[in-house]
Amino acid sequence: MSERSAASLSAPNDLRAFWMPFTANRQFKKAPRMLVAAEGMHYTTSDGRRILDGTAGLWCCNAGHCRPAITKAIQDQAAELDYAPAFQMGHPKAFELANRLVDIAPEGMEHAFFCNSGSEAVETALKIAIAYQRAIGQGSRTRLIGRERGYHGVNFGGISVGGIVNNRKVFGTLLTGVDHMPHTHLPGKNAFSVGQPEHGAEIADELERIVTLHDASTIAAVIVEPVAGSTGVLIPPKGYLKRLREICSKHGILLIFDEVITGFGRTGAAFAAEKYGVVPDMITCAKGITNGVIPMGAVLTTAAIHDAFMTGPENLIELFHGYTYSGTPIAAAAGIATLDTYREEGLFERAADLAPYWAEALHSLRDCPHVIDIRNEGLIGAVELEPIPGQPTARAFQAFLDAYEKGIMIRTTGDIIAMSPPLIIGKGQIDELVGTLRDVLTGLK
């Protein structure tokens, strides 16, 4: 769609039926913000304005919008093979994509299990972890350990191991046998850190306390985001993830990295596991796997985990788990074209090269009103604002609205502004994004 034809579209005349996710529905429907087209680094609104995308859609459009090679791959695949079942049948592109993922994953990741989203990838990894422990004769290991302020999607397993209160509090008792490590946010010691904070590696030792409380023989897995994204961009302290790896290995506990946000170049490497030099037992991924164009997720596992299930008669199903849309042809084609785009344009390397410029630009906002912390890693950034007394989230939400009116898209969680632009962003666009945000912050009350 051309920008001219997109601009001619108006908002729908009836907004009642759609119950929008993670949205202030009543506020939105009084003053809708409608996106009708996108290209490269920009969205086009229903009133014809261009909006600079500072969030890669929803942390997912890492190669920018409406990339021709990805679009063509989807069109061609839909015309050739629209759907094929993944149960007891296969199609070539699912196997090709699995091989391509393993090729760019950290050494030791040798298998991929496909699903449809990050939430489903987390559910899959948690189920595999418990089933694996049983498969190796450790059936008492059923407990799962997450982290305060962690986000692992919105299914029951994900919100159980997750640690964001509003995602949990109205949905009952959730899964039993779940515990949580403390988060790593230490503003008193680490405020305005550039990259990884210096303080906080010792927080990983809280896992030892949890192991002592429950006994290692009851714990199947620990799941953490290498960089906690949706809670407001919490960067792991130096040495923290390596210490978690050591403790998990010591006690026979699987370590799962939720890389739904950090995967596919966001930190300047294919996966944050590579960036931080820590290899988990499983990696969950989604979003950037198809550039956000078609729903898809995956769990990457070691050979040890996969092979533990490959026992018994060969005609029997080894893992009773999967989805109607696991590795569908169109999603697999989009994934392959997306990986091609990342490689051909060197986008992971580009993110690493731009990271210092991004950090400097972001931290230039330190003197803006109400700013109490700034955090960054790769092409991820957060600006934390002092809340309005008695009105939590109000200041950041106003910044979000003002930013949209001034032509940039940001995300907010609580009183934290989060940004994660497509990896195709240029230095001039970084200046535009941060400069406009400065204007927004300066105007806040």
Automatic annotation (TrEMBL):
Annotated SUPFAM superfamilies: PLP-dependent transferases
Protein name in UniProt: Aspartate aminotransferase family protein
Record's keyword annotation contains Transmembrane helix: no
Needed cofactors: pyridoxal 5'-phosphate
Keywords from the UniProt entry: Aminotransferase, Pyridoxal phosphate, Transferase
InterPro entries in UniProt: Aminotrans_3, Aminotrans_3_PPA_site, PyrdxlP-dep_Trfase, PyrdxlP-dep_Trfase_major, PyrdxlP-dep_Trfase_small
Family per record: Belongs to the class-III pyridoxal-phosphate-dependent aminotransferase family.
Organism: Amaricoccus solimangrovi
GO MF term set: adenosylmethionine-8-amino-7-oxononanoate transaminase activity; pyridoxal phosphate binding
